[in-house]
Design goal:
two-stranded antiparallel sheet, about 0% strand
């Protein structure tokens, strides 16, 4: 009993230490940023919608003098901004403080996920790496939904890994609720249950059908208020957002294909833009979706070619969020000595895990889903960030795998010398 208590007391102490160090680093970084301006067009959008919510006007952004978008972004992050503005005013430090706390909690979750997958040593190393990981620090200061999404989604992954044939119903319900919250933060994981179902059937066959059904049911119940709100605001049942068709077409059109600098990213040709003064946001999104599908059907080879570029952009070492491949020397160095160092260890850890593939089937499904979605839409290191906890955990496992291989090789060499 004493050994058991000591084990979990040490774990708790380690988690508190990691949280405190992570929070200190993120707050120092947040304090260096302009507290009154966002970081990008996306940031300004979120701030505009959040300000509307704070003023009691509701969730929308003004597109033209007469037209509004009511469902172009998921609601949870704008609501958070609205609450922060209502309480603290327009000083973004308070929003970044919340994001820094969320990012620090993610460090704890990385430790816990690593323990579930590989054991205590890998979990500790992964948590330390994520604490100092430059991209994790950066997104805690960025006015965007990434930091909030990742902490919720990481919590979902941790709970998902703990599910099994003997799990209780409430555990499946918590998983569904967390996946629903993740989707309300960013719509990316909406179709993830399809991949998880395949993984579940491969691992447990039909033993967890009831648990999976509960997960889906609770996820749907979590999303229903957003669906009803969209039905009331737009007159249409919008399941996620009204940007899916736009994003799909922007990543798959002839102009993107013909310009090498645009391949793999997204760009909407000027002559293909829909006049929002003439059609609703839902109809505009449908038009864009049809245009994207038309390109794919007429140019399957070009679509596959673009998908390859998107794959490369998704896994590339240097960040390329915009359309220009040029980034500063400082960013290149930071990326090279963080993600660049982790990438080969990630591959090693991933390959080594195939021996026990059933144990890791959910993590494979999540990684494949995010990578596959990027190959359909557009390639970006920003789309890769939500699976950074898994990348770092597998990389940490790869470090220990390489150390074991080195020791085995040294032992073999010593044996040869003795002989």
């Amino acid at each position: 009993m004493k050994d058991y208590m000591k084990k979990y007391t040490n774990l708790f102490d380690n988690l508190i230490l990691i949280f405190c160090i992570a929070l200190l680093i993120r707050l120092i970084y947040a304090a260096t940023l302009n507290p009154y301006h966002g970081d990008s067009a996306d940031s300004e959008y979120y701030l505009q919608v959040g300000n509307n919510i704070a003023m009691g006007k509701g969730h929308y952004n003004q597109v033209t003098p007469t037209e509004r978008n009511y469902a172009s972004k998921a609601p949870l992050y704008p609501v958070l901004i609205g609450v922060v503005i209502k309480i603290f005013g327009h000083n973004l430090f308070w929003l970044r403080l919340i994001q820094s706390i969320a990012g620090s909690i993610t460090c704890i979750l990385v430790v816990l996920i690593g323990r579930e997958l590989f054991g205590a040593a890998v979990g500790r190393l992964a948590g330390v790496i994520f604490t100092f990981y430059p991209f994790a620090i950066y997104y805690c200061g960025y006015v965007g939904s990434e930091s909030i999404f990742v902490v919720i989604f990481s919590c979902f992954i941790w709970m998902l890994l703990r599910l099994g044939p003997g799990s209780r119903k409430y555990e499946s319900a918590i998983c569904g609720f967390l996946l629903g919250l993740s989707t309300l933060t960013r719509p990316i994981p909406f179709y993830l249950p399809v991949f998880l179902l395949i993984g579940m059937l491969l691992q447990y066959e039909k033993k967890m059908i009831k648990s999976f059904a509960i997960l889906i049911l609770v996820m749907v119940m979590t999303l229903i208020p957003w669906w009803l709100r969209n039905l009331n605001a737009t007159g249409h049942l919008v399941l996620t957002t009204t940007e899916a068709g736009y994003t799909f077409f922007a990543g798959n059109n002839i102009e993107v294909y013909e310009q090498p600098s645009l391949r793999g990213t997204y760009w909407l040709p000027e002559n293909e833009r829909v006049d929002r003064a003439k059609v609703s946001e839902v109809e505009a999104d449908r038009i864009y979706g049809k245009k994207g599908m038309s390109f794919v059907k007429q140019n399957p080879g070009k679509f596959l070619h673009l998908s390859l570029y998107k794959f490369i952009r998704f896994w590339r070492i240097y960040p390329q969020a915009g359309f220009s491949p040029v980034i500063s020397l400082r960013e290149q160095i930071i990326s090279l000595f963080s993600y660049g160092v982790l990438l080969p260890f990630f591959v090693l850890g991933l390959v080594a895990s195939f021996k026990f593939w059933k144990r890791f089937i959910y993590t494979y499904a999540i990684i494949l889903y995010f990578c596959g979605l990027s190959m359909v839409l557009y390639g970006s290191t920003r789309l890769r960030f939500p699976i950074s906890p898994l990348i770092i955990i597998f990389a940490s496992s790869g470090v220990f795998t390489s150390l074991r291989a080195r020791r085995a090789w040294q032992s073999l060499c010593r044996g040869v010398v003795v002989k």
